[in-house]
């Protein structure tokens, strides 16, 4: 039953990613990196991501003719989505690296996933933030934009990964006698849930970062 549910959830996520991607091809975002972020978020947030994209994302398309009347809650949601996109991409890249190399940390494959995926999530998270900041502030240069990206997204990435890793620990130690493997659909269904939890955990820090002016509301 869980395998069937996993296939359904993964299929819905893929369909939602395709729906968003097709519309973005027709209506590209003003901020280019969001052309990547929205489809990635469609994979784990499913229909909710499609709804959020059409309600809030489309307002920032190059050809948008509607007034941007989004409230702060929505803008912080998009900022969190931006961080989640980078983290998710890094995590997805990290999983096969650990699976194919068979590396372990302190004798644990889970800890190896934590290490590799955190490093990649951080790198891609900062890169996604850089590609949001630099185009708007080319006058300040690459180095300053890179520093601003680290300042804006470090807390966000860390809290996202904490939420995600917490769920992974529950899956690994509590929910299964034999944790699912990366070649099984259940593993990726659990990862979808992990991304949602990571998003929810990182939303309050993103709100704080925006309120303090450390991070721009998107």
TrEMBL record:
<feature type="domain" description="DUF4396">
    <location>
        <begin position="75"/>
        <end position="215"/>
    </location>
</feature>
<feature type="transmembrane region" description="Helical">
    <location>
        <begin position="6"/>
        <end position="24"/>
    </location>
</feature>
<keyword id="KW-0812">Transmembrane</keyword>
<feature type="transmembrane region" description="Helical">
    <location>
        <begin position="111"/>
        <end position="134"/>
    </location>
</feature>
<feature type="transmembrane region" description="Helical">
    <location>
        <begin position="36"/>
        <end position="54"/>
    </location>
</feature>
<keyword id="KW-1133">Transmembrane helix</keyword>
<protein>
    <submittedName>
        <fullName>DUF4396 domain-containing protein</fullName>
    </submittedName>
</protein>
<dbReference type="Pfam" id="PF14342">
    <property type="entry name" value="DUF4396"/>
</dbReference>
<keyword id="KW-0472">Membrane</keyword>
<feature type="transmembrane region" description="Helical">
    <location>
        <begin position="155"/>
        <end position="175"/>
    </location>
</feature>
<feature type="transmembrane region" description="Helical">
    <location>
        <begin position="187"/>
        <end position="210"/>
    </location>
</feature>
<dbReference type="InterPro" id="IPR025509">
    <property type="entry name" value="DUF4396"/>
</dbReference>
């Amino acid at each position: 039953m869980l395998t069937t549910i996993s296939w359904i959830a993964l299929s819905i996520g893929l369909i939602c990613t395709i729906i968003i991607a097709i519309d973005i091809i027709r209506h590209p975002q003003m901020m280019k990196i969001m052309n990547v972020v929205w489809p990635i978020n469609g994979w784990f947030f499913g229909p909710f991501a499609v709804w959020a994209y059409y309600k809030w994302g489309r307002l920032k398309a190059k050809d948008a003719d509607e007034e941007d009347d989004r409230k702060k809650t929505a803008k912080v949601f998009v900022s969190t989505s931006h961080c989640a996109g980078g983290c998710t991409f890094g995590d997805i890249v990290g999983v096969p690296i650990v699976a194919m190399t068979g590396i372990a940390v302190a004798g644990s494959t889970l800890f190896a996933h934590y290490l590799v995926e955190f490093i990649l999530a951080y790198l891609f998270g900062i890169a996604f933030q850089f590609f949001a900041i630099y185009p708007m502030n080319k006058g300040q240069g690459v180095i300053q934009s890179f520093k601003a990206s680290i300042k804006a997204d470090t807390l966000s990435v860390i809290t996202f990964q904490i939420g995600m890793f917490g769920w992974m620990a529950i899956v690994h130690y509590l929910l299964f006698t034999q944790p699912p493997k990366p070649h099984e659909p259940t593993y990726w269904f659990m990862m979808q849930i992990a991304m949602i939890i990571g998003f929810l955990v990182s939303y309050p820090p993103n709100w704080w970062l925006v309120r303090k002016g450390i991070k721009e509301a998107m």
